[in-house]
Structure formats: C-alpha cells, structure tokens
Amino acid sequence: MSHANVSIATPQPVGVMESSPFSIPSKKLVMWLFIVSDAVTFTAVLFAYGYLRNATPNWPHPFRFSPSIINVMVMTFILVTSSFTMLLGVRAAKEGNKSKAILWTFVTVAAGLVFALLHIREWMGLIGEGVRLFQNPWGSGLFGASFFSVTGLHLLHVIGGVAVLTVVALGYKRGRYNSDDLEIWGLYWHFVDLVWMFVVPFVYLLNITRAS
Amino acid sequence: MKTAEEHKTGGITKYFVVYLAILVIAGLQIVIAYQNIDPSQMIFRMFALAAIQAGLAIMFFMHLWTEKRVLMLTLAFATIFVITTMNMIWTDSFRLLGGVPFAKYQ
Amino acid sequence: MHDMSHATEHHAHTPPQGFIRNYVFSLDHKVIGKQYYGLGLVAVITGMVLSWIMRIHLVWPNFAIPGLGLLSKAGAPGGIVTPEYYLQLMTMHGTLMVFFVLTNVPFAGFGNYFLPIQIGAEDMAFPRFNMMSFWTTFVAFLVLIAAFFVGDGPPLAGWTSYAPLSAVGGAAGPGEATGQTLWAISIAIFCIGQLLGSLNFISTTLDLRTKGMTLWRMPLSTWSWFITSCIGLTAFAVLLPACILLILDRTAGTSFFIPSGLVINDKLQPHSGGSTLLWQHLFWFFGHPEVYIAIVPAMGIVSHILINSMRRPMLSHRVIIYSLLAIGFLSYMVYGHHMFVSGMNPFSSLAFSFPTLLITIPSTVLVLIWIGSLYGSKLRITTASLFALGFISMFVSGGVSGFFLAQPSLDIYLHATYFVVGHFHMVMGVAAIFGMFAGTYFWFPKMFGRMMNETLGRVHFWLTFVGTYCIFMPFHYLGLAANVRRYSAFVDDYLQPLLGVHKFITIAALFTGAVQLIFLYNLIHSRFRGALAPANPWEATSLEWTMPSPPPFDNFGGRHPVVYHDPYQYGIEGATNDYVMQDSPEEIKSVRDER
Amino acid sequence: MAKFLAVTIVIIAIASAVPILRHTWAPPQDISTHGPLIDEQMSDTMAEAGISFLAAQIILAIFIWMFAGARPEGKIKTFPGGAKAMVIASLLLVGTEVLALGIFGQRAWASVYFTPPGPNAMPVQVQAGQFAFYFRYPGADGKFGPLHPEQINEGNQNFFGLDTANDPDSKDDIVTAELAIPVNREIHLLMHSKDVGHSFYVPELRVQQDFVPGLDVSLHFTATKVGKYEIVCTQLCGLGHYNMKAYLEVMSPDDFNSWLKQQAALQ
C-alpha cells in the first residue's frame, strides 16, 4: 500500500485510524522516545566527564575496595533486583493480578529508596572526606564536579522514578491507572537501571585506588 | 501479531537468567577493574560489558525483543547514530593531554 | 488490532468554558499554535527593534535613541549605546531570533496548529503535554526578557555563549553577571519545552493519522514538522545538560568549561582544569541541528504552498521527503564547521568539511525540484506564493555562500566576518521568515476565518523582498573585505572605507523593518475586518481545507475523515475541478507522481 | 505581477554579481606564502558558487515568467526527465563540484595546519588578554621563560607573568605591544590566552586562529611583503572587543634586527 498512485478510490475497511507503525500505544511510544532523548542527555554528560577526565593528568582515584566498591556492588545489586521486581510487578499486572502487581511495585519503590539512601550516604561520606563540587583532597577539582553531576543526574532520575512509581501504583490500586501505565513507567525504571550500568564502570571502576 | 503481553505469560525462568547474567557481568566488570591492563583496553572491555548488560535489559526487561522489529531498529538506529556522531568531541580531549601541537618552545 | 491510540488522553467533544480554559491554559492545539505564533510575533518585534538599535549605533554612534536611556541607565546613558550594551543587545537579538522566533513559529506554531489537522486528528496525542510545552517556553521567554532588567543587564557573550567568557561570571566585565545566568536558565527551560513538544509531535504523527492517511500520503509540511521534531528530540537533549553544566560553572564553582590559570584584571581565577572547547562541542552539537530545526519546517511549508499555487504536485513527493531526511541526518555530522579556526583539532576540520559539503546535494535536489516543478505548471500568483517563490530565491542566495564556509581553508579568511552574518541571515533567518510569511498569508483564512488583504500583502512582499536583499547581500561583500563581525564600532583603519556600505545597510534595515508595519496592520486589520473566508479559498487539497474556517473546536466535528488520495491531486484530468481533495471519494486517474 | 517578479529576481541576481565581478570589495592583497592557495581556492569557489547562484536565480525567473497565470485549459507539463533528472544532476554536477572543492581546498588547509614549522622558523609568543595583544621574543638565548599567571600585573608592565628575578630564561625575553617580523622568514607563532577566548586575524596574511584559554595553539606563516598591517580580534571577548587590535610590522631583516635591539634596550 501507500503507493502514490493508487488510482482507484476504494472504500476503507472499518476502523478510523491508520495503524501505528510500531503497534504500541502512544504513551509507550512517548516513553521510548523520552528514553532515547534521555539516553542522549546522559551520553552528553558522560562524554563531558570522559573528555575532561581524559585531559586531566592528576585525576584522583579515590574509590577503595572497601567500602566504596562494596557499596557500589550492593547498590548495583539492589537496582538490578529492583528492575527484576518491577518486571514481576508488570507481569502480574498484565495477568490481572492486581494485588501482586502492587506488592511488587512497592518492593521496587522500596529498593529504589534504599538505593537512593545508600547513594546519599555515599555522597555524605565523600563530602565528609572533603570532596566538594570544586575541590577534593586528592587531585583535580573536576573529579567532584563530574562525579556529583553524573551521579546527581542519575539520582534525580531514581528519586523521580520512586515518586512516579508510587503515584502510579496507588493510582493503579484505585483504578485511575491501568496495567499499561505501570508497564510504561516500568520501562522508565529499567532505563534508570540501564544508565547505572554505564555509570558504575566509567565513574566508579575507572577511579579505583590500586594497590601499587 | 505477537505482542508483548502474549509473550509475558511465558515462563519467568528466562527473565531470571537475564537478571543473573546482568549481575554476573557487573561482577566481571569489577574483576576487570582490578586487572593491570592498558587503560584503553580497560575502557573498551568495560564499555563492551556495559553494552551487553544494557542490551539484555532493553531486549528482555523492557521487552523490546518481542515488540515489532521496526521499533527496535528505529530506536537503536536513532540512539546509536546520535551517540556515534557525538564522538567527534574526543579529538580535542586527546590534544589537551598532549598539549601544544608542534610544541617546541615554551 | 487492539485499541492503540485511544489510550491517550482525549478531552471531551465540547469546548471548555471560560476565558482561562479557552485562551490561556487551553488544551486545544489550535489555540496553542496561535499562542506560539503570538509569542514568536512578540519576540520577532523585540528582536527587530534590537537590530535597529544596533544598526543605528554602528553608523551613527552618537545618535541618542529616544527612550533607550530609560531601559538601561548604565548601558545606554542618554540613549547612546555603550560598546558593552551593543554586544548585550546583539546577544539578545540572536537568542530571541534563533530560539523564540525561528524555532517557535514555523515548527511549534504552525506545526501545532496544522499537523493534527493535516493528518485528520482531532488534537495532539497529548494535549496536556502540549499546553505544558507552550507554557514552559513562555517561562523561558520571561526569564530571558528578565535579563534586560537585572544588575548589569542582559548577557554579552553572544547567542553561542562561548566559555570562558560566559562561564567566569562578573569578573569578565559587564554583562556577565546575573544576565548570563538567566540566559543559561532560560535556554535550559526552553530545551525542556521543546523536548516535550517534540515527543508530542512524533507520537501524534505516528499514531493519530486518520484512516487512509499513510505516511507517504502526509503533506510535505507535516513531513517537515515530523522530521524537525525528530531532530529536536535529540538536539535539545544535548543543549540541556550543557546549559546545566554552564549554570553549575557560574553558580556552584565548578569548572567544566573554565581552564586553569585564567587571569582577569590581574586576578588569578580560582577555577581549574576545564575545557572551553568542550562547551563549543556540546553547543554546536545542538547548534547545527538547530539551524535545520529552523529551516526544514519552512521548506515543508513552502513546498506545501508552492504545490497549491502551481496546481500540480512536485516532480516527486518522495524525493523531497528523502532530501529533508538526508539533511536531518547530515546535520549531526557537520557541526564542526562552526569551529574550524576555534582551536579545534585541525584533523577534525577535515572530517567535518566533507559532510558539510555533502549537505549541498540534498539542498540542491530540493531547489531543483522546486524550480523544475515550476516548469509547465499553472502558477497562480498570490501573496503566499510570492513569499514561497521569494523563499527559493533567498535560500539559493544564502545557500551558495555555504560553499565557502564549508571549506576550512576559506574559513581561515571568512570566519567571524560579515560573510558569515550574511550567510546565516539569508539562509536561515530571512528564508525561514519568508516561510513564515508565506504560511501566514496562506493559512490566515483558516486560522482566523477571514481573508488577509491581498494588495497590502503584495506591497509587503515587494518591499520586503527587495529590502532584505539590500540588507543581506552587502553583508557578503563586507565579509570579502574582511569586515569583522560583533564589533560595536569600526575603529580599524582598513574598515574605514566600508562605512558607506554599513550606512546603506542600516538605511535598508530601517526601511525594511518599517515595511513590516504593513504586515502587522494587515494582520490585525484582517483579523477583525477582513472578508469572511470560505472553507477552501485556495482550492487546496489537504485536510485542513475540508473544514469550515476557522475550524470548529474538535476539528472535524466528531467525524473521522477518510483519506483516499495522495496529498496533492492537482491538475487532474476528468475530475470535476482541477483538484481532488484528500478525503474526496471521487474516483480519479491520479496524476503521475514519479518516485 | 509574475513577470515583474521574474525581472526583479534577474535584476537582483545580476546586481549582486556585479560587485563580485568588478572586485569592488575584494580581499586585500595577499602578503603570505600560503595565501595564494587560499586565494586560488576562493576564486574557484566564487566561480562555482556564482554560476550556481546566477543559474538558479535566472532559471527560477524564467520559469516564473513562462508559467505564471492560470490557463485552465492548458495541460500540466512535466520537466523532461522529471525528478530523476534532478537527483542525477545534483549528484553528478553538485556532488563532483563540491567534492572537488573540498579535496583541492585541503591543500591550503594542510599547508597551514598539517605541516610543522621549519627548523629555522622564528618563534614568537603572542598573548591575548582583554583587550590587547602582547608579543614576546625569546631574546639571545632563544628560550622563553616560563609563565607565572599569578604574577601577571598590568600596572608593573608584567603582562606575561614573567619572573625575571628567578628564571634565567626570562631575563632576556623581549615583550612588545606590536608584532614586528622579518620579511620572508617563517614565523612560528605560539598563541596563549590569559583570560577568555580571542582570535588573531590578519586579513592580508590570510591567517585567522582563535586563542583557546587553557590550550596553547601554534601557527606558522611567512610574510612576503614589507609593510604595516592590522591584527584584529575576531572572537567575542567582552566590551572592548571592537577595539582590540595590534599592528603587524613586516620589516627587512636589518630593520628587524635593529628594532629588536632597540626593544631589548627598553626592557
């Protein structure tokens, strides 16, 4: 179809819309597009960080295995697990098991909160060690700036996700939202998890303190 | 047409395996981080592993694998295209490290 | 197929009650489109007045501009512009024009109004988002305008806000205090507004097409808005974090864009380690696609109008779409041509120059198809078609100077001269504005239910067409004579012989600006006193002309139109008229549309 | 109406081309060794751009002249070859044209940026600051002393932040406010910005390069003609941007040596 010279006008079959080329609801499409756009935003920030890190000779390597890397491992575990529980929640919702869906969603929200708290605790620890946006005890002041910007942007996404998931879960309970909405915000939550998978190696693991 | 919903009624095992795989890769990254290898190699390996993680999450947790293939292609193409073109910024980053081109006098 | 697009929020089929719901916080895409248009009109008038002040200051530096002293006591004591105030006005002119006029009107304004109608939808996919994106943009506008009234006035660093001048704060001289922070905040907010708008445009285009409106049957204007929103979705996503990092540099003491060891007024700056080139990269990665965000909708609108005036489809519908797509893709690979001599790696310049030259090819295809379609057509001359033809002429004139600026070796000589000013004003400024004028004259009857005055419109066209050439052509000559841009006075010896040209340009600018009063008068007068418009005054085929003028609240009155034809069935043999509307079930032998 | 438009377009196109053909406003005469390449590239591009410009405008005008005015009885004609012809024409004509321009244009670029300065190039450092250029010659030892940004003090005339008390290399450095260079000798210009972005532009020399704060870039050129030229700033640097300039004086080698001695005595 869709040829420019279909010359004979034929009566159209029932249905009032052309089908979407992707066969997904508009809201889900918008979420996917938002994810593309947000991925570009994160890329820009990570590239800026990488650009500066690459160009800075005295870049600090402050992350020790204990506690920093262990903390990161725990945080990664929690976030990936929360992604998995989100998946379970969405599955339950799609199967019509409302109470189970809400339960799993709240487990996700709780995991997100724990992640955010651990992250803030880590920030506090670094701030306690003297890391600021513009200085730190070990080397280039850019470390604090880029660390707090990258992880801060991610943390904002986590906190936003926690808030939205709470609202959506409560709304779903009351019937204001349906399983589609839960699925769409689930996509967002998975994306936040996905960004963390890039933040961990580039922001943490490249800056570990080595034994030498 | 197969939609995400129909697939999701399938087993949970697949997703659990994906979940474990992501965790294992996360662990692997930490192992790599402590190896004594060239930074460029390390960055490459880290990136490759992170991309695999992300790919698994997108394809299975976010069900992109079971959506229409054209959606996956569109999104992947758009994101990868934009990110690839953005890579031109690195040429200047490396120059800052080396300092001045033709530097002979200071 | 399961229910797809109707999960989206749709409002009831009755118009909302009350002034606020109807005209201020309206969810109706038509009202929002007009709001964008109105905001653009305010911005373009402000920007134009600023350019007048700058032009006057350049050639009559001691002329006291009445009232300007009241706006800024420090910047223009007694109405005489100081050098820093000149640069501040220049920055505001650029920012207002690029963001609030060239992005807002052809894309967000006309796009909002006509994209849903042209695809047969009753509204955007997300009306609430749509309202939010306008009001976000409006807040961005207010924040930017507020810069006129703070501390030492609006920002000074140009619309590109190159760091470190834009990042080190008040130390770098006047115009770098609060005003620059407001600029960064305003642009960050603007990005959010545009991102929301882009999401909405894409999902609307993909999901809300009425039966029979396949992607290839969408009018070219719809295609251009769709392509623009795809560019906007990723381009603004880069400017947003760049602006946030700039705000951090300015307010939180970070130094992403500020290198070590800067000494300003004998004072060593506390910042260290950043890179000024990083800002340029991030900015231009957005900045070049932005240029196409401004011009692609104008191309679409002009094609739409030209086809209607020529009474025949373009030589190829699809090649135009492919060309627009190619321009969109190439726009991401060419941003470095703004930075050839800015200290960027000279090898990158090489890598950027070839895609930049390649962009000539799709642009040439477009121009050739526009001109080639004129051949053998039955061209009707209306004000709208005059502006559309003027657009082609302007686009060619501005486009060929791109040949020069795409080459790093010539950029050594021409960079930062008036040649660049002439180039981008013609190709993206004036051409896009001609697109807007064409769109206004063409769609005004639909938008307001009244015809615009044709005679005044033609007078407006002639004077504007000749006037803009008189302003912007000499800019190229100045550039060839190495006249440097962004100078508030020409004190260099070698620039003295060029002052006559500047006087000519200033007079032309004052004249052309004054001519726009005819347009404004026509706009306002026709809005209230114009002849009542029929549903389809131009005998056009696309869906916006199937409804009464102005369209009812829900566009199609609750019915869903069914589309049977390609968008541009003009010059049909054996049909009742020489055209067949898209939703007409009439059986026709379609015009041959090559692919 | 339409015919009037066609005539207007032709008049505008021709009127626009006349100053170019008559060289009313042309680049000043070139005084550098790499300049002829740029000038040649400029005139080639001008020819191609000019032909494209005139051809497009005039054909546009002709078609408007010919086909305006509705003739309802007439038939729509299609341009011979249709869209395919247009695409092929753009690809072949414009594609080869711009590719040729791009490829040949790289010679000029490469001669400036991809070749290091010769071994005998004379090093000169230029520092841009709001809103003046200062130049530094290494003096008899041929070495520049290190810069100490914290010691920059305009009041003491220490524009570069030199520590002449402690750095032996700095002692004989010569700092001037104008750039004097010997004719026909390659100059290696080391460009340093002390505050914001600036640019070094000498139209006659066909040289323009931005200063990048935090990154010292370098340039090399050879001037071939004695004379006095203006160096202007082309990167927006603040309120005094328009007034930021210095003079470039190209001298005969003897004149240059005596000038340098004279400057050294003034330090």
Number of separate strands of chain C: 4
Order of helices and strands of chain C: HHHHHHHEEHHHHHHHHHEE
Write down the CATH class of chain A.
Answer: Mainly Alpha
Helix content of chain C: 55-70%
Q: In percent, how much strand structure appears in the residues of chain A? A: under 5%
Second-tier CATH architecture of chain A: Up-down Bundle
What general outline of chain A do the C-alpha atoms trace?
Answer: elongated
Distance between the termini of chain C: 31 Å
Alpha carbon gap, first and last residue of chain A: 67 Å
- Spatial shape of chain C: globular
| Number of contiguous helices of chain C | 16
Oligomer: heterotetramer
For the sheet with most strands of chain A, the description reads: none
What structural category do the secondary elements of chain C indicate?
mainly alpha
Helical proportion of chain A, percent range: over 70%
List keywords for this structure.
heterotetramer; A: about 210 residues; mainly alpha; Four Helix Bundle (Hemerythrin (Met), subunit A); disordered N terminus; D: about 270 residues; alpha+beta; Immunoglobulin-like; 2 domains; 5-stranded mixed β-sheet; 3-stranded mixed β-sheet; 5 helices; about 20% strand; elongated
Structure description:
The complex is a heterotetramer of chains A (212), B (106), C (595) and D (267). Chain A has 212 residues and is mainly α. Chain A has one domain (26-55, 66-207): Up-down Bundle (Four Helix Bundle (Hemerythrin (Met), subunit A)), CATH 1.20.120.80. Chain A has five helices and no strands. The longest helix of chain A is centred in the last third of the chain and has 33 residues, at 142-174. Chain B is an all-alpha fold and 106 residues long. Chain B has two domains: 1-66; 69-97, no CATH class. Chain B contains five helices and no strands. In chain B, helix 2 (13-33) packs antiparallel against helix 3 (39-61). The model of chain B is unreliable at 1-8 and 97-106 (pLDDT under 50). Chain C is mainly alpha-helical and 595 residues long. Among the domains of chain C are: 19-257, Cytochrome c oxidase-like, subunit I domain (Cytochrome C Oxidase, Chain A, Up-down Bundle), CATH 1.20.210.10; 533-595, no CATH class. Chain C is 60% helix and 1% strand. Mean pLDDT of chain C is 91; it is low at 1-12. Chains in contact: A-B, A-C, B-C, B-D, C-D. The interface between C and D is large, with 118 and 108 residues.
